[in-house]
Amino acid sequence: MQVEFINPFLESIVHVLETMADVKATPGKPQRKEEDTAQGDVTGVIGMASEQAKGSLAITFSSAAIFDIARRMLGEEVTEINNTVTDLVGEITNMVTGGAKRGLAEQGYDFDMAIPAVIAGKNHRISHKSNGMKIIIPFSIIAGKFYVEVCFE
Amino acid sequence: MQVEFINPFLESIVHVLETMADVKATPGKPQRKEEDTAQGDVTGVIGMASEQAKGSLAITFSSAAIFDIARRMLGEEVTEINNTVTDLVGEITNMVTGGAKRGLAEQGYDFDMAIPAVIAGKNHRISHKSNGMKIIIPFSIIAGKFYVEVCFE
Is the N or C terminus of chain A more exposed, i.e. has fewer CB atoms within 10 Å? Predict the structure, then answer.
């Protein structure tokens, strides 16, 4: 997996959060994910397939981060991971992959998009099951942390 | 979503567990999933897209069920949801969707398969984010329960 492959996802999440939630998200250094270390409270996960590559993307939010994003995007105080929050995470995941898809198409990758699923549960962790390298990119917003994980083969 | 659409998944999981783990899995009545009620300890989730339909599939295992399946398939006692277990759940999810894909092709649905992701964490729950009906099928094996969730639009 090339760095050029990851950039469309990074640019897309920063853009989505800036335009939809007026939140500035600062990416940390992309890391190779050796263990299933990233833990979060709610995760959007989506599989992506093209003729040239296939894999999966996950966006894992801490409660603090997603509650802040929900407040900003929906104008609603949320204090638990309810259907409002899982819907929001599904929508964010769709918007991020939709944006990344355009960037990837410019690189010649034409992905069919599948529907995201959202997982809720305290401190769950994600394993991507492809033979490709797993890259995890930590992000910070003022309210908390979230993680983007990309794995393609 | 038609019942005919679900049957290939049911037949495939029963077949996979019977041939790979010598476990007889008994399906319960398929139910419309109104709430995100099914909880489990480890879940394989995969997105599927064809020209005619797209959606997602999740297979959620209780610890008791997957530990028994691991013992039978791998000949190994496992007592925690470690990488061995998440690899196994990823493989089972791949085999089940691979088998279902053949049955769906006979019905004229030609799916690209994406890579599964596996989620581990006590009592997590899954939300499928498509506009289609969500169907959950409970299964019993002697050691415990697991659930297959299918959502297509």
Answer: C
